Amino acid sequence: MTWWKCSNCGYIFEGDKVPDQCPSCGEKCTFYDVSCYTPECGFCGIDPKIAGTRQEESRF
Ligand SMILES: [Zn+2]
Asked: Which domains does the chain have, with CATH numbers?
């Protein structure tokens, strides 16, 4: 499973693939893969370094 973060509202959820619409805000957003692949993150499944930052949002 992969953890995804909505670029619009910041909602984080788990799934095999991204849905057509964000489960939280209902928009067709860009979803970032925020899954943690290293045990250093505490095995919560989410990488806090990725999930906690909003600087990767594109501003196109
Ligand atoms: Zn959203």
From this structure: 2-51 (2.20.28)
